[in-house]
Specification:
One of its GO terms (biological process) is translation. Belongs to the bacterial ribosomal protein bL28 family. InterPro entries: Bacterial_rp_bL28, Ribosomal_bL28, Ribosomal_bL28/bL31-like_sf, Ribosomal_bL28_bact-type, Ribosomal_bL28_sf. This protein is mainly beta. The protein has one domain. 10% of the residues lie in helices and 46% in strands.
């Protein structure tokens, strides 16, 4: 679900490193919103990341 329809930005993984340098798994999720978007003259609800919304890649309905 947390995947942008436009740029396909999704969650990515890495390590959380403590002060003593012990490592555990960490996940960063994309800032994805469910918005109504104008598509082919109609409206459609899509999951779009906020960077695509701000840059104007989609037009809100």
């Amino acid at each position: 679900m947390a995947k942008c329809v436009i740029c396909e930005k999704a969650a990515h993984f890495g390590n959380k490193v403590s002060h003593s340098h012990r490592r555990s798994n960490k996940m960063w999720k994309a800032n994805v919103k469910s918005v109504k978007v104008k598509v082919n003259g109609g409206t459609q609800r899509m999951y779009v990341c906020t960077s695509c919304l701000r840059s104007g890649l989609v037009e809100r309905a």
